[in-house]
Amino acid sequence: MIKVYVKPDELWDYFQKHKKRFESAMDNVAEVLDDETESPLVRIYLTEENGYPSMTIEQVHGEDEEEVLVKECAISAKDCVAVYQKLLKQLEEYAEEIKSETTSDVDETDIELVAEREAELREALAVFLNTLMGLDECDEIIYSDEELSEILDNIEMMMCQDFGYVAYRPQIIECNGQKKLVEFPYEECDPYGDED
């Protein structure tokens, strides 16, 4: 959510009123807060530079750490309003971006479920491959996780498309900007759907 503490048409007067203090300090005049925790994510600060209003957009990385994303100065009341309105628009864009990045139906339990199942499937596949190649199933696993995951992808697709079997393989996917857990990625698969 966006909180605006000083309105654009009040900013010049606010700066003039506190100009002396702004020589060594800055004020948070608007910010984006996390919807759940209400902790600050991005802020607009006002301070003084060479006698004029200076504004920055800063991303909050922790209590004592912030990164300057944008810096603008204004030299008149009209300019001050225009610059501030431009920065507020950018703040809105940051808020939307942050919201789309954090929108998720996935929690820690889902992530653990996916990781555990992937490890289980890779281990079973490695034993199966050893057996196929005439090795002892307990022999050293020589396949990388990437190779095993790729082979699993192909087997899962083939099982569904050629035989109609759907594997239980939880995955976290992104759909319409939201992350969600899908337990059977090929659930909608119809092996005979293309035939007339």
Description:
This protein is α+β, with helices and mostly antiparallel strands and 196 residues long. It folds into 2 domains: 2-102, no CATH class; 108-182, no CATH class. Helix content is 43%, strand content 26%. It contains 5 helices and 7 strands, in the order βααββββαααββ. The chain has helices spanning 8-17, 19-22, 77-102, 108-132, 145-163; strands at 2-4, 27-33, 40-49, 52-62, 65-73, 171-175, 178-182. The strands form 2 sheets. It has a 5-stranded antiparallel sheet with strand order 1-2-3-4-5, with helices on one face. Strands 6-7 form a two-stranded antiparallel sheet. It is elongated and about 80 Å long. Mean pLDDT is 85; it is low at 191-196.
Keywords:
196 residues; 43% helix; 5-stranded antiparallel sheet; single chain; alpha+beta; 5 helices
Helix % is 40-55%
Poorly predicted residue ranges: 191-196
Provide the succession of SSEs.
EHHEEEEHHHEE
Instruction: Return the structural class.
Output: alpha+beta
- The total tally of domains equals 2
| Arithmetic mean of pLDDT | 85
Note the gap between the termini: 53 Å
- How much of the residues is beta strand, in percent? 25-35%
Radius of gyration: 28 Å
Total helical segments? 5
Q: Main β-sheet, in a few words?
A: 5 strands, antiparallel
Shape designation: elongated
Number of beta strands: 7
Placed side by side, the strands forming the largest sheet appear as: 1-2-3-4-5
